[in-house]
Specification:
There is one protein chain. With 202 residues, the chain is mostly helical. It has one domain. The protein contains eight helices and two strands. It has a two-stranded antiparallel ribbon. Helix 4 crosses helix 7, helix 5 packs antiparallel against helix 6 and helix 6 packs across helix 7. The protein is globular. 23% of the residues are buried.
Length: 202
């Protein structure tokens, strides 16, 4: 199946295989990899649902999760996940295009969707770890973010053949913009996180 091919290519990209990065960046159609990512996420959701039914309820550090809300969020998660992947990689690709008009967004998005297949499994593992220990889950998620940024740096450098300085500009400008937006959200809506916590937990 195409999903196994995408998973293998995603692992190679995350293993910093330059040849695979170059090859996947030149794919003309994103339809198959887009559908493969959605399919894999729905399989993961099915597993989460069956485990939830078996154990009765999920909890984090003694606090029960509202299962109706959880399953409702999981139903929209696969498509939302793909939109986030498209938006994030597209944002970094846009910075590369602004730096040099010869660069285009599509190659980086193509590579991004191949890595997203592997990331979907890693996110599931991190979420599973968080149900046992929130601190360990936070630690693994922090490591995941650092690894994601390094992989992004390597991919941008290989796809667009940029210097180290140019790659850092493409990498950090979106991070700076996203950080400022999040900061403004939490300044003007300080209780937003508590609102979501109260919805998710019973």
């Amino acid at each position: 199946m195409y999903i196994f091919k995408s998973l293998l290519e995603g692992l190679k990209i995350l293993g910093f295989d330059k040849e695979t990065i170059k090859k996947t960046s030149k794919e003309k159609s994103l339809e198959e990899i887009f559908l493969s990512t959605i399919f894999l996420n729905y399989i993961i959701i099915l597993v989460v649902y069956l485990i939830g039914i078996a154990i009765g309820n999920y909890s984090i550090q003694g606090r029960d999760i509202n299962m109706n809300v959880l399953f409702g969020l999981l139903m929209i998660y696969p498509f939302a996940y793909n939109l986030v992947v498209y938006g994030v990689y597209g944002f970094f690709g846009l910075m590369a295009e602004l730096l040099n008009k010869k660069n285009t967004i599509k190659p980086l998005i193509s590579v991004g969707f191949h890595t997203a297949v592997v990331y979907a499994i890693l996110i599931y593992v991190i979420a599973l770890c968080s149900t046992f220990s929130l601190s360990f889950g936070a630690f693994t998620f922090s490591f995941f973010i650092l690894y994601f940024l390094y992989t992004m740096f390597f991919s941008i450098s290989e796809i667009y053949e940029l210097s180290v300085e140019q790659t850092l500009i493409v990498l950090f400008i979106p991070i700076l913009i996203i950080s400022m937006v999040l900061l403004l959200i939490f300044i003007f809506i300080p209780n937003l996180s508590n609102f979501f916590i109260n919805i998710i937990f019973k």
